[in-house]
Amino acid sequence: MALSADDLHRAAKLARLNVAPQSQQAQLDALNAVMEMVSAMQSVDTSDVEPMAHPLFQSQVLREDVAVEPNQRDKYQASAPNTDAGYYLVPKVIE
User: Fold this and answer.
1) Which pTM value belongs to this model?
2) Which end of the chain has less neighbouring CB within 10 Å, N or C?
3) pLDDT of 1 strictly over 90
């Protein structure tokens, strides 16, 4: 499926790009090359390929979730104008 000059102008308008008249043909050729590559990739049979979350066979090393710093919430909230039960209270902005 080859793209036309109208397709290029429509894509440029949607992307809010200016395509200079002297570079329109080069841009169109580049986009058509991308479309040909996508078409070639779609023709590959991937029915036997199992989906994977990551291209490398790695496992994530997890550590125990332990707090390493002391809780300083009261110190940080001391300068706040309004707090309650550890939460910052702000004025209502939506009626």
Assistant:
1) 0.49
2) C
3) no
The amino acid that residue 2 corresponds to is: A
d(CA 58, CA 52): 11
At 79, give phi and psi (nearest 5°): -90, -5
Read off the tokens for 27: 């841009």
Q: Of the candidates 56, 5, 59, 14, which has an alpha carbon nearest to the alpha carbon of residue 32?
A: 5
Dihedral (C-alpha) 19, 24, 30, 31: value to the nearest 10 degrees? 70
Distances (CA, A) of 52 to 28, 42, 60, 62, 93: 34, 18, 14, 20, 45
Amino acid at 82: N
Rounded to the nearest 5°, which phi and psi values hold at 30?
-65, -45
Asked whether residue 89 carries a pLDDT value surpassing 90, the answer given is yes
For the record, the structure tokens of 81 come out as 């104008």
